[in-house]
Write a structure and sequence with these properties.
globular; 9 strands; disordered C terminus; alpha+beta; binds manganese (II) ion
């Protein structure tokens, strides 16, 4: 599918997101990329993306992936994204998707079916993930609908299969940070412009509003703290300290 909808929704003069080239041919032997981007926008969600035929097939998962095979997570099928998007982390100041994007997981995926197109058409794709946080066997299964979207074909469920990588650990809470920068939302925002939403926040109410308010406050504090950081100490005292520590350690171990 071309990136028409992806491009139509965005103004690349105002968004740092990659514009993306049109789908490229993929080397048959090269592993397929996958990523999950934690996105604090009008609502917090996790964008689950699988590289296929030169683009990233994308699903927005409101509650994020679960490692528990009994928990099926709603995954709304959204427009394909360019492959370049898979490395994106940063602040979208305004427009579609305005908010903070964190690269929450990335790695490679392998279809567990011979014909991915047929599996997608059927609405039942089984695959293996090899990421930092998500591993093992999973499925995306199309469902009949959810709420107002009943029957429009966009509702899928993301399900962990029972294997060594399944478990009851809440992975979103246990491993909340970026795999790219090891930062949280506030730290990612502090890298950019924490004052960007002085007015007109992408989220005001609910959980997303509270998370965003917290991120904005902490980002401003991080930036202020950085500006106030004392000059690095003279090298001499650092060396003396290191020498002392080393001596101490040696004494202990002997
Ligand atoms: Mn998103």
């Amino acid at each position: 599918m071309p990136l028409t909808e992806y491009k139509r929704k965005r103004d690349f003069t105002k968004s740092p997101e990659p514009e993306g080239a049109e789908p490229k041919a993929h080397g048959a032997s090269a592993p397929l990329f996958f990523c999950v981007q934690k996105h604090l926008a009008s609502h917090l969600h996790y964008d689950f993306r699988l590289e296929y035929k030169g683009t990233l097939l994308s699903w927005a998962v409101p509650k994020g992936p679960s490692l528990d095979p009994t928990i099926k997570r709603l995954a709304m099928h959204v427009e394909d994204h360019p492959v370049e998007y898979g490395d994106f982390e940063g602040v979208i100041p305004e427009g579609y998707g305005a908010g903070i994007v964190m690269l929450w997981d990335r790695g490679t995926w392998t279809p567990e079916v011979d014909d991915v197109d047929a599996a997608l058409a059927k609405g039942d794709l089984k695959f293996t993930l090899d990421g930092y946080k998500l591993k093992g066997s999973w499925a995306l299964v199309r469902t009949r609908g959810y709420g107002g979207n009943r029957g429009d074909g966009r509702s899928w469920l993301l399900i962990k299969h029972r294997d060594d990588w399944a478990g009851d650990v809440d992975i979103a809470t246990f491993a909340p940070l970026s795999v790219k920068s090891n930062q949280d939302f506030a730290e990612i925002l502090a890298e950019d412009n924490p004052a960007v939403w002085a007015t007109n926040r992408p989220a005001t109410g609910g959980d997303a509003g509270a998370l965003l308010r917290d991120a904005i406050e902490r980002a401003a504090a991080i930036k202020a703290g950085r500006a106030k950081e004392p000059l690095p100490r003279p090298e001499k005292s650092t060396r003396a300290k290191t020498a002392k520590k080393t001596t101490g350690r040696k004494k202990k171990s002997s």
